[in-house]
Amino acid sequence: MHKGFVKQLFNVKQITKYNIRNSLRRIFLYHGLLVRLSSMGVTRVFSFTLAGGTGVTPEQVRKDFSEYGIRGNRRGGYLTSSLLKELEALFNRDRISNVILVGMGNLGQALSKYGLFIQRGINIVATFDIDPFKQKARADDIVYPPERLQEIIDRFHVNVAIVAVPDISAQEVCNELVNMGIRGIVNFSPVLLKVPEYVVVTNVNLSDEIESVIWSVSRMKEEQSLFL
Amino acid sequence: MHKGFVKQLFNVKQITKYNIRNSLRRIFLYHGLLVRLSSMGVTRVFSFTLAGGTGVTPEQVRKDFSEYGIRGNRRGGYLTSSLLKELEALFNRDRISNVILVGMGNLGQALSKYGLFIQRGINIVATFDIDPFKQKARADDIVYPPERLQEIIDRFHVNVAIVAVPDISAQEVCNELVNMGIRGIVNFSPVLLKVPEYVVVTNVNLSDEIESVIWSVSRMKEEQSLFL
DNA sequence: CATTTTATGTGAGAAGATTCACATAATAAA
DNA sequence: TTTATTATGTGAATCTTCTCACATAAAATG
Ligand SMILES: NC(=O)c1ccc[n+]([C@@H]2O[C@H](COP(=O)([O-])OP(=O)(O)OC[C@H]3O[C@@H](n4cnc5c(N)ncnc54)[C@H](O)[C@@H]3O)[C@@H](O)[C@H]2O)c1
Ligand SMILES: NC(=O)c1ccc[n+]([C@@H]2O[C@H](COP(=O)([O-])OP(=O)(O)OC[C@H]3O[C@@H](n4cnc5c(N)ncnc54)[C@H](O)[C@@H]3O)[C@@H](O)[C@H]2O)c1
C-alpha cells in the first residue's frame, strides 16, 4: 500500500515549545481526508483507509491516534462522524477562525478567492494592500488599506494573518501585525521572519517545493542511468 | 539566536528510496538565503549567518554541509560565490528546468505570473487548462488545451509538472501526465495521488498550513491562560 | 614567529520518530 | 454459546535526526 509514491506532509519545523509534532501534522491530513470521505457518504473508516488515503502506514495512524487519545472499536474501526468530531475538538475547530490576508498581489488574490477554506474553519474576514489600485479591485470584495488593520483585527478578534507581500516588505508588515496583536503568521515570502517567542510562524516556500521535486527527479534519472 | 520563533521547512515525507532528507530540505533553505545575501553584496558567510537566516542552529548547518561534502575555511567561514556554486552543483542547478503547469484557475494563474521562479532555475514553459474560456485568457501568455500536453512535454523535455486542478480531476490529470512521461509532480490539490514508484510527488496543502497555525495559536493561548 | 582568537568539522550521545510484533477486544460465524 | 476472525492499541526495538563538546585549522595579533 505505502509503496510507489513519494509522499509529503505539510511542514513545520519548530524551535519553540509550541512545536507542531509530526504526528499532529498527520492528524491534519487524516482530518482533510475524513472530511472528503464523509461528504462522499462513508460512515466507517479503518486505520488502513486513512493510511491509504494519506500515504502513511496503518500502524502510524493508530499510533498517532493513540498519542492524542483517540480510540476506535477493536474490530469495527472508527465511525466517520464521531472521529471527525474528536479530531475537530482536538484542534479547536468547534468554531470558525477569522484570519486576515495582507498583500493582494498574484498569490493573495488567489488565496482570497479560494472558496474551500471555510470548510476547514478558515474565514478570511478582510484583505489588505498598500497599493491604492488594488484597494478598489472589486466592490463585493473590499481590499483595505493597511491603516485599517488595527480596527479590523480588533473588531473580528483576529489572531492569525496570511502574509503574501514581497520579501522586502515582509519583515516590516510582520512587525506591524505583531504589534497589533497577531499571534500567528502564514508567511509566503521567502524570508525568515523574526518574531517574539509568543508568535507562531509557518513558512510556505513554493520555490523550494518545486525545486525539490526537480532535484528528486533528476537524481532518480541519474541513478537509473547507471543500470543501462 | 535560534529562539523566539517557530520555524518551518518545506516538507516532504517520503516512502520511496527517492527520499528527500531533512538535511537536503535545509540545503534548499540555505541556498535561497544565499541567493538573497549574494544579491545584497555579501561575499562571505558563516554557519551562524545561514543559521540565523533560516532558523536552524549553526551546528546543524555545518553538519548538513558535512553530509554533502561542502567545506569552508576553519576561520573564514564560506565564500558566498563558491558556496553558491557548490550548492547549485549539488542539486543540478547548472541548467534551468522546464516545467509545465496544469490548471489555470486562481492558484495556477498566480503561479504562472510569478516572475522569480526563473531565478531559482524553474521555467514554466507552458500552462494548460481544460476550460476554453481560460485558454484564450491572454495573447502573450497562452494557455493550451490538454490535447497539446504530449507535444509540449516532448518538445521541451519536461519532466516535472505543477498540478493546480480541482481535487476531483487531480488523479485523472496525474495519470495522463505520468503516461506522457512526467516523472515529478507538485500537487496543490488536497488528494493523495497514486503514482508508480518511479514518480515523485510533493503535496502542498495550504489549508493544512493555515489550520496548523490557527491550532498552534489557540493552543498557546490556552496554555498562557493557565498562568493568569 | 609565537600566541591568541575564532570558526569549522565531526564523533559520541541524546532525543525523536517509525516500525514491528503481538496481546486484546469487538464482531461474525458456526 | 463457543470459536474464529479481524482490526485495534501499544510496548519494545530500530532507525533517523539533532545537539553537544571539543579537537583542529586558519587568521589575526603582538
Ligand atoms: N505568486 C507566486 O506564485 C509565488 C511563488 C513563490 C513565492 N511567492 C512569494 O509570495 C509573496 C507574494 O507573491 P506575489 O506574486 O503575490 O507578489 P505580488 O508582487 O504580486 O504582490 C504583492 C502585493 O503586496 C502588496 N504590498 C507590498 N507591500 C505591502 C505592505 N507593506 N502592506 C500591504 N501590502 C503590501 C503589493 O501592493 C502587492 O499587491 C512574495 O514574497 C513572493 O516572493 C509567490
Ligand atoms: N486557490 C487557493 O488558494 C487554494 C488553496 C488551497 C488548495 N487549493 C487547491 O488547489 C487546486 C486549484 O485551486 P484553484 O483555486 O486554482 O481552483 P480553480 O477551480 O480556480 O481552478 C482549477 C482549474 O483547473 C481547470 N481544470 C479542471 N480540470 C482540468 C483538467 N482535467 N485539465 C486541465 N485543467 C483542468 C479548471 O478549468 C480551472 O481553471 C484545487 O485542488 C484546490 O483545492 C487552492
Describe how the helices and strands are arranged:
The structure is a homodimer of 228-residue chains.
Chain A: H1 22-39, E1 44-45, H2 47-54, H3 58-67, E2 78-79, H4 80-90, E3 97-102, H5 106-113, E4 122-128, H6 132-135, E5 143-144, H7 149-155, E6 160-163, H8 167-179, E7 184-187, E8 200-203, H9 206-225
Helix pairs in contact in A: 1-2, 1-3, 1-4, 2-3
One nicotinamide-adenine-dinucleotide sits between chains A (102-108, 128-131, 134, 146, 164-167, 169, 173, 188-190, 206-207) and B (110-111, 114, 116).
Chain A binds a DNA duplex (30 and 30 nucleotides) through residues 21-23, 46-48, 56-60, 62-63, 65-66, 71-78.
Structure description:
Two copies of one chain form a homodimer. Chain A is α/β, with parallel strands linked by helices and 228 residues long. Chain A has two domains: 69 residues, Arc Repressor Mutant, subunit A, CATH 1.10.10.10; 112 residues, 3-Layer(aba) Sandwich (Rossmann fold), CATH 3.40.50. In chain A, 43% of the residues lie in helices and 14% in strands. In chain A, the strands form two sheets. In chain A, strands 5-4-3-6-7-8 form a six-stranded parallel β-sheet, sandwiched between helices. In chain A, helix 1 packs across helix 4 and helix 2 packs across helix 3. The interface between A and B is large, with 88 and 88 residues. One nicotinamide-adenine-dinucleotide (NAD) sits at the interface of chains B and A. The first copy, chain A, binds a DNA duplex (30 and 30 nucleotides) through helix 3.
